[in-house]
């Protein structure tokens, strides 16, 4: 099987009324955990690689090739996604490396510049049959001040999607990246209003730490894709601490790592599919 596009994932989400998880990769153990969770649950999944990971942790071209090799034997839809591409060059790198969808995060730009750059990337990516995710509003990091003026405007979302042609839109409705100090309060009425204005896929970033019932409500209100990384990171660190003394003796620093990450991924995948029709 070939890697699925994000449009394939969104179509599945809408047809079956589920959210599909995008889980970030930092090494092959993470990739194997996410892929195996998809095969065992029979649910689609997206393998995410943020631009900053590619710059700091691994060769994105090599990792994408390894993921494509796994996907050849897949029984489910599995996508290879560039998460938070912050630069034109970063997105072009992912396109050349064979990613099947890309995100261009222009949320730090002025609105008009975000529209201009996103539309340019959409034109190039669509010519290569690659889906594109954009971002509107300010998701930010846990600890940032979140006021309603930083949330995604439904009216602006309609204009943004119409002018850029993005296949999916990441929205800010009270969600943030990182480890929440408490339970975030999501603006579901705003999410419903955004969904009423646009027909593209909607994406919830900063998924780790959101209450289970809020995930379900967000999917009910129109979210198609949910991003998870911090929960994976915490599970991996806990696994390393648990086996640290054994690592000293056997040098097997990956012991238990795939299983620990897979457990977190599987739980989220099944939760996101709890409304499945």
UniProtKB/TrEMBL annotation:
Required co-factors: Zn(2+)
One Pfam family from the record: F_bP_aldolase
InterPro entries in UniProt: Class_II_FBP_aldolase (IPR050246), FBA_II (IPR000771)
Domain of life: Bacteria
Name assigned to this protein: Class II fructose-bisphosphate aldolase family protein
Organism, as annotated: Faecalicatena faecalis
